[in-house]
Amino acid sequence: MDLHHPILREFPEHREVIRRLKGSDDHFRNIFDEYHRLDDEIYRIEEDIDFATDQEIEELKMRRAKLKDYIYHLIRHAPPACPACDGTGFVRQDPLRFGPAA
Question: What does the domain layout of the chain look like in residue ranges?
Fold first, then answer.
């Protein structure tokens, strides 16, 4: 049984939004990374690689669940994709064009 709970496996239908947010939103990326560090820590404890008390593991799992809920909230409230953007959330600029982007 796989004990890891990666966000992309938890929310496969939101793969593109997650990818976009990771590339353009530092806050989302930090929360995403924190979730996965915590998931790895829980995995190591459950596989008897590291040790924690029952109370500690329950607190870690609760924290992971709260982060997962918060990530889902961020995904659901993400602004729609910008077709003129370059994947970073910024409008692509034509280097041969002067003035504001169309």
Answer: 10-76
C-alpha torsion angle, residues 74, 80, 86, 89 (rounded to 10): -50
Contact yes or no for 45/52 (Cβ under 8 A): yes
Q: SS3 for the chain, per residue?
A: CCCCCCHHHHCHHHHHHHHHHHHHCHHHHHHHHHHHHHHHHHHHHHCCCCCCCHHHHHHHHHHHHHHHHHHHHHHHCCCCCCCCECCCCCECCCCCCCCCCC
CA 93 to chain centre: 27
pLDDT digits (tens, 9 = 90+) for 73-85: 999 999 888 766 6
Query: What is the model's pTM?
Result: 0.77
Classify residue 25 as exposed, middle or buried by CB count within 10 Å of its CB (0-12, 13-18, 19+): middle
